[in-house]
Design a protein that fits this description.
- With about 200 residues, the chain is α+β, with helices and mostly antiparallel strands.
- The strands form two sheets. Strands 1, 2, 3, 6, 7, 8, 9, 10, 11 and 12 form a ten-stranded mixed beta sheet that branches.
- The model has no long low-confidence stretch (mean pLDDT about 85).
- It contains three helices and twelve strands; from the N terminus they run E-H-E-E-E-E-H-E-H-E-E-E-E-E-E.
- A hairpin with a 2-residue loop joins strand 9 and strand 10.
Length: about 200
């Protein structure tokens, strides 16, 4: 699998957001499901990876600064479930409650080790990891990026309000006028001992 632009389809992107926000005080974890595709990116047809589903692993061992599969049996059970319903895993995702979408040194070491020890044996030589940084916005009405939505006494609609769309997808998720989260999403290609940042694109359709 060659490092190429990554298009997050609406369902997959929504799943990433919901997974990270639901347990925003702890890290989430899951698999990415997708396929090679060709789409219009920046005005031209481009070879890309289309991520059409994100599968949160419910049995993950979670903490504020860590997340894991718990044990090898739990990870294999989750992987087998994905394959049993007709999909192949192209990578994974996890969230950071501190709002940072950047990989930690520990993240890098763990993913490289798993790619070499586990996934390369089933023919997966490249791995896409998406990191979702999520942080609660204490006062949405005072947020620089959201306060315009509250002008003239309007009650804004819940939704995702992006303010950056590539290579890092960033924006605010407004749930209620008093509840909102800032999210920043970055992608990374792992392969052959190297880590490269991926170009993420947000599909609205």
């Amino acid at each position: 699998m060659l490092p190429c632009p990554v298009v997050l389809e609406p369902f997959a992107f929504s799943s990433l957001l919901m997974s990270a926000i639901e347990i925003h005080g702890r890290e989430s974890l899951g698999f990415l499901i997708g396929h090679h595709d060709r789409q219009f990116i920046n005005g031209r047809m481009t070879d890309c990876i289309s991520v059409h589903a994100a599968y949160p692993v419910q049995s993950a061992d979670r903490g504020r600064t860590m997340v894991g599969f718990g044990n090898l049996a739990a990870r294999k059970r989750a992987e087998d479930t994905v394959r049993a319903v007709g999909f192949e895993i192209l990578g994974g995702f996890h969230s950071h409650p501190d709002g940072s979408p950047r990989l930690s040194r520990e993240d890098i070491d763990v993913i490289l080790d798993e790619l070499e020890a586990v996934y390369s044996k089933v023919g997966l030589s490249n791995w896409l990891e998406i990191v979702i940084g999520v942080k609660r916005i204490c006062r949405p009405r005072s947020s620089l990026s959201l306060k315009k939505l509250f002008q003239r006494g309007k009650t804004p609609k819940p939704g995702f309000y992006p303010w950056n769309v590539e290579p890092e997808i960033a924006g605010d998720v407004l749930i209620t006028p008093k509840t909102a989260f800032r999210v920043r999403t970055s992608g990374y290609w792992f392969g052959y001992g190297e880590v490269r940042e991926a170009l993420l694109c947000y599909s609205r359709y």
